[in-house]
Amino acid sequence: MDLLKKRIVEDGTVLPGNVLKVDNFLNHQVDSQLMDKIGVEFARLFKNEKITKVVTVESSGIAPALTTAIHLGVPLIFARKHKSLTLTDNLYTASVYSYTKQVSNDISVDKRFLNAGDRILIIDDFLANGQAVQGLLEIAKLANVSVAGIGIVIEKSFQKGHTLIEKSGVRLESLARIASLSDGKVTFVD
Ligand code: G4P
Ligand code: NA
Ligand code: NA
């Protein structure tokens, strides 16, 4: 998606540790018009997949997931993050390890919101090591729902997540694919 790549080049900042800061349009201030166009693009890519729900993880996934859900005409569910809970009978829960923060958190979705027969589209803002997506795939399995695909706004193709999803066989569509953030410079795949 050229508009998104242009925005990354113009407004993104590369921080030490291969981190791309995009808090002026995606992760803190949200460019609502750009988010709408991202939703239109994901909806176009997955329009023939008979999707019944869009699923993401709070918090930064919610903006692109919501616009996608609007353009597909389906509900959005965001998994909630929390420390391990004791009362989980009514929840589908997966543990998500963050390499960046070196902590595990649980993410969960109330059982009422995923039902047999649902066909979900997973959306997230970033794909790095793929642990958040992996957690959502685990929840989909627990809930016995099918996964039509995964839509990512910004993929860091040089980290583990891309390969991990490829191995799972689930369709992956990333709107911007970053090959490298070396020397403070953004280089895209292709
Ligand atoms: P992953 O395995 O889920 O791919 O993520 P990882 O633990 O590597 O990264 C932890 C958090 O940092 C995730 O957000 C992820 O989206 C985000 N992240 C990873 N690389 C980058 C980057 O280069 N730039 C930015 N801006 N974010 C990055 P989170 O803390 O789980 O989610 P949220 O609370 O921000 O929604
Ligand atoms: Na994030
Ligand atoms: Na996210």
From TrEMBL:
Record domain Phosphoribosyltransferase: where: 45-157
Superkingdom, taxonomy of origin: Bacteria
Residues involved in xanthine binding: L20, N27, K156
UniProt entry tagged with the keyword Glycosyltransferase: yes
Signal peptide bounds: none
Functional pathway: Purine metabolism; XMP biosynthesis via salvage pathway; XMP from xanthine: step 1/1
Reactions performed catalytically: XMP + diphosphate = xanthine + 5-phospho-alpha-D-ribose 1-diphosphate
GO molecular function ontology, one term from the record: xanthine phosphoribosyltransferase activity
Keywords, in A-Z order: Cytoplasm, Glycosyltransferase, Purine salvage, Transferase
Binding site for 5-phospho-alpha-D-ribose 1-diphosphate: A128, N129, G130, Q131, A132
EC number per UniProt: 2.4.2.22
InterPro entries cross-referenced by the UniProt entry: PRTase-like, PRTase_dom, Pur/Pyrimidine_PRTase, Xanthine_PRibTrfase
CDD domains: PRTases_typeI
Compartment(s) of residence: Cytoplasm
UniProt keyword annotation of Metal-binding present: no
Classification via PANTHER family: HYPOXANTHINE/GUANINE PHOSPHORIBOSYLTRANSFERASE (PTHR43864), XANTHINE PHOSPHORIBOSYLTRANSFERASE (PTHR43864:SF1)
Family, similarity comment: Belongs to the purine/pyrimidine phosphoribosyltransferase family. Xpt subfamily.
Assembly and interaction partners: Homodimer.
Protein's job: Converts the preformed base xanthine, a product of nucleic acid breakdown, to xanthosine 5'-monophosphate (XMP), so it can be reused for RNA or DNA synthesis.
Name used for this protein in its record: Xanthine phosphoribosyltransferase
Organism: Lentilactobacillus raoultii
